[in-house]
Design a protein that fits this description.
It contains ten helices and 18 strands. By secondary structure, it is of the alpha/beta class. A nine-stranded mixed β-sheet has the order 3-5-4-12-13-14-11-16-15. A six-stranded mixed β-sheet has the order 6-2-1-10-18-17. The longest helix is centred in the C-terminal third of the chain and has 32 residues, at 354-385. The N and C termini lie far apart (59 Å).
Amino acid sequence: MFEIGRGVARGLRVGIIGGSIAGCAMAIELSRAGCDVTVLERSGEELKERGAGIGMPPSVYEMLVGRDLIDAGTPGIRIRTAVRLCRTQEHERFGYVAWEQPANLVALNWGNLYRNLRLRVPEGAYRTRQQVVALDRPDAETVVVGLAGGRRLEFDLVVCADGYRSFGRQTLFPQSSVEYAGYVLWRGLLPEREIADAAPLEGVIVTPGYRGGHGIFIFVAGPDGSVEPGRRLVNWAIYLQVPQAEYAAFFTDAAGAFRDGTLAPNAIPIGTELSLKRLAREMLPDYYAEITNLSTGTFVHAVFDCLVPAYADGRICLTGDAAATARPHAASGALKAITNAVALGEALRRHDALDAALAEWDDEQTAAGNASVQLARQLGRAFVTESEDWSRWDGATMKQWFDSVITGRHEIFATEPRQAAAEPVSLAPQEGDQAA
């Protein structure tokens, strides 16, 4: 398990900016190490249910239970196969299966994970309506956090867990800004009871490939935490290319306001959503297109990434997506944030000097975080911007291709010339994409 209150952590005043998964995990781990933690969350209420899925190896799930970050028995769905398929003229309903790839993961509901973490944050440490506007360092051992309204809070250490648009990162490393990858992720949820046949999704994660992207379909626990058949949610996501020139128009919401990088549920203009659902019908096997078309309250966010020179600068640290931000292909966002928290807590227990603990933690997390960004970029090229025609492949060929992507080799087929990169599908409204 873990020991409480050893090393330099004892009595250390720590401010944590951001109260989502990254902030809560950091608060739990550092408080258990002996720190006096304060979480500063800018929103005016507890974060709302998102319902999206998070996949992790069983060993990570067991680590979360073993460290009492989640309850034993927190509902998850065991996945042993990743099905790579695509729509063809001969396989319009369920798709041509190019490869049934062995897999080993547990799918959790984002909301279940967040609630477990939030309940473990020390009582009274989580403060809402705390908008951070300044980070000052009057001396080498103090960080002063300035809040909107003029209040100032003094800490020995500040950890920025404020997401991919991090104020902390902008303050420490203004040259390290997020970069748009050229595509978006359109997402949705559908109650299992609304599909007639659950068999194609049982025990698998399904990845339909198409020109210029791919999708993900998987069961996660339902809103009540149940993983019983009939009470689960289908969690799905679709990658689509949106050129930079179309970015501003695409992220203009139903009220006509520009939303940089995110269109929340019910904010997508109806014409845009109808266009997206039309594209799903064209690109996906019918079974999966029907799921997207039945879903309401879908949402979309741009895909960004960012490398950072360090995770710590003096007594200010970055964690989760506030540090190195990876595209979601490697499914590493929430898990990376939890790993950052566990590692920092352990470093503070091992060392009697804060600077030594931070230096050790910084070296390890910076290397791992930036490596995850590079891997996700490779996956983004392979599965989205330079995607291949999976209908030409069998399992052996696709495994060879996949292994070359993961290991970073680019000479995939010595005897077959590489096809040109796929052109982005058109997101422009077409005739029939109007509200009735």
